[in-house]
Amino acid sequence: MKSIKKLIRLIHINYILAKNGLDNVVVSLRLFAPLRFMVYLNPWNWFRKEHLTHGEALRISLEALGPIFIKFGQALSTRPDILPIDIAIELSKLQDKVPPFPSEKAMAIIEKAYGLSPYEVFAEFDPIPLASASMAQVHAAKLKTGEEVIVKVLRPNMRRVIENDLSIMHTIAKWADRYWPEIRRLKPKEIVAEFEHTLLDELDLQREAANAAQLRRNFDRSPILYIPEVYWDYSRSNVMVLERIHGIPVSDISSLQAHSIDIKKLAERGVEIFFTQVFRDCFFHADMHPGNIFVSYNNPQDPQYICIDFGIMGTLNDNDKRYLAENLLAFFNRDYRRVAQLHVESGWVARDTRVDEFESAIRTVCEPIFERPLKDISFAQVVLRLFQVARRFHMEVQPQLVLLQKTLLAIEGLGRQLYPELDLWTTAKPFLEKWVKEQIGPKAFFTQLKQNLPFFAEQLPNMPKLVFDFLELKREELITDKKVLSHTKREEEKAALHWKSIATGASISFLLMGLLDYWNLIAQRQLAPLAFIGAAITGLFVLLNRSMRN
């Protein structure tokens, strides 16, 4: 039954692609090459007045295929390192907006989660959703303690829907990898696997709540970013309750201006938030599209962002963070050799990569960019071009860097939408230089020491015993090593003497044999066997005598 449903879904996908003029893409697969003539039989090709670009046709097709394919298109739009730029830009227009599911189902999910109806759990509950997306929808409510909240409810049967569509995607990726050489280099199977991992993470609202709580803690009392509070007592894997926030959508420029928001400062603070999350906290919001960002009405001359939707977060380890910071600074200073070296040192490209060739490739791509005024240079595009060059040198896909690139593109795009003169380079460079100084040198040493003081204080009472145990262990190892060396030396000396004895005994035997044989030849031939035996016994006696001495 599953196979039949899968086949029907595949037929439907091909129908949508053909309808939007992508049938030539399908028949370009070697598997379907014999059906290439079908393109000319496609009735949509006869009457189509408007010829869409591949990017437009793909976007429209994904929209028609449903929310999971829309999210896949959105994920692909963040990968202009593997897609043509025009297609990536077109896919970035995909909107994750779908009609809400019936309120009765939402209320049934809430009742199952709490064991009580929404009206028993909350003082107030609005059955009409505030917003709806592919994975969940949001309802307004009020706690019995008076706080205004939003209740996020996961769509019913989402796991089954996702697994069905992911199965189709895996099949398509496998076919593309096998039969489409042009696509094989893009690693379609790996792309789908990466998307699957991200998508399944979004199914757990407890995970999202934990992300929100962590980010709120990181920016506690911050004047630049506010994160709504999580109400843990009401949060489940398929229901999440957050503080309701009120603000101006960041994309509503006219409203921002009407409230006298300092737009320039707002744009610069967006950059500051990004670099703070990445380099201070190593934990960043990776879904920073305008629908998830608001601006507080309070303090218009000291604007504060408000973020929602914490399903997709990015993390960096200390090594990635350091290499990334040094990479960006090297770029600022046009030190392309250092950029190449850092890529090799970090393991982002193979260890046997020739640094001089990599440096030359980076310079060729980036030097023309730097000839323009800094305010006209897209910081995100420079990073993107760097990744594109690195891909030519077989840079493995780094999921954390993909999310970082996606977020950087979104932040810079948003900042320049707010304030077209935004110079992200000028804003970012002092931040990075300060961060690098804090990580290297005496100040960094004492900071690290201060951070480790509680551990040292805890271990201090044990230090004498630990030192004694360590020294005792080393003493025993030294004694053992000496014994082994002494024994080995004696054995070597005995072996040398032993072989010397053998040589001496053999020499005496051969000498006696020679003399006796000579004597035998001259005088008494009948005594030859006896002489031979006597010579051998004499040699053995010498050998045994020396061995016993040793």
From TrEMBL:
Which amino acid positions bind ATP, per UniProt?
130-138, 152
Ranges where the ABC1 atypical kinase-like domain occurs: 93-342
GO terms, molecular function: ATP binding; protein kinase activity
Q: Does the keyword Signal apply?
A: no
Q: Which GO terms describe its cellular component?
A: plasma membrane
- Mention one GO biological process in which this protein takes part, according to its record: regulation of ubiquinone biosynthetic process
- Tell me its EC number(s), please: 2.7.-.-
Q: Which residues cross the membrane?
A: 527-544
Keyword Transmembrane helix belongs to the record: yes
Q: Which domain of life is it from?
A: Bacteria
Q: Where is this protein chiefly located?
A: membrane
> Where is the protein found, in the record's own terms?
Cell membrane
- Catalytic residues at 287
- Pathway membership: Cofactor biosynthesis; ubiquinone biosynthesis [regulation]
Q: What does this protein do?
A: Is probably a protein kinase regulator of UbiI activity which is involved in aerobic coenzyme Q (ubiquinone) biosynthesis.
- The name this protein carries in UniProt is Probable protein kinase UbiB
**From which source organism is this entry?**
Legionella sainthelensi
Name the gene for this chain.
Answer: ubiB
